[in-house]
Amino acid sequence: MNGDVHEHVETLIIGGSQSGLATGHQLSQRGRPFLIVDGHQRVGDAWRHRWDSLRLFTTARYDGLPSMPFPAAPTRYPTKDETADYLEAYAARFHLPVMTGVTVDCVTRRGPVFEATAGDRVFTSDNVVVATGAYHTPRIPALAESLDSGIVQLHSSRYRRPDQLREGGALVVGAGNSGAEIALELSRDHPVWLSGRDTGQEPTRAGSLPDRLAMPVMWFVASRLLTVGSPLGRKVRDHFLHPPRGIPLGRVRRQDLAAAGVERVPRVASVSSGLPMLEDGRTLDVDNVVWCTGFDIDLTWIDLPLTLTDGYPEQDRGIVPEHPGLYIVGLPFLRSLSSVLLGGVGRDAWYIADHIDNRAPAATAELAA
Q1: Which residues of the chain have pLDDT under 70?
Q2: Which of 89, 115, 136, 218 sits 20 to 30 Å CA-CA off 271?
Q3: Distance between CA atoms of 283 and 270, rounded to whole angstroms?
Q4: 328 and 197 assigned to the same domain
Q5: How far apart are CA 23 and CA 347, in angstroms?
């Protein structure tokens, strides 16, 4: 075994954002030992490194992790920096053992235990919880390489603010929530084209009186009714995940985009003379392209045979049956439509921590043998 061996820990949680912290808190409540490792330098950095104007899609009332409400007015939509600070405060309040600056390169199994390597460090554990979330490798179409070298290209993961772009027109590719919000922001200083399938929009405007009245009902539906345990929930899950597609627009409305002069255009089909060509044959003479085309989940660092569907491992509410002791949390529709939202990970974390707590005696006996 190469590298420096860290002391054995019962449960290693990989990822220190909301899913990992919520799972750690639930394990702490049960008296189970664990360690959280995260590649960022500070808890909450996964949020700090997103674009400046980003806000959560749910109000603070629905953004709290277990045992700690979000510290903001219930109807406020928190900023990404407020969210990052909340996660950091959560880890501190409950004294969660988080080791930052540790990126796990590989997870495998050595006999009865898991082995995780992070550079020259090695961790062994009875259980591994993968809490790295759904957003890993930026998905950029291959045709991007054929665009003129003078066009500024940014994926949404690298976009921070409008001043990163050149003067001139901007094409935003991907018309989900990220694309719509970035397109609207860019429209203040640029002619903007928004390319992609219309994902629809929520029935009420975010922050309006109808929205505040409807939100408790919508949250109940998203967290209690649309679950993997119900036929309707499974149908909705398959609609959004197989293949992956954007959810309806939240804060930005179609009329907001139209009023700002954002032109909706068909999908980008190819490149002509270094410029993006649309499905309708038009070529757009733009100086900037922002790819809001989502992410591919990357679990190649898990050196274990996994059965995958659309990139997601086969699991039962986060339990990976192929490998006892391996769990995954923070994926869309792990249990319900709300699983990927800040306020929805608590139920998933509770379920996984309970399963770890119940299997602990058996795992200990296996190690002793």
Answers
A1: 1-6, 134, 360-369
A2: 136
A3: 9
A4: no
A5: 9
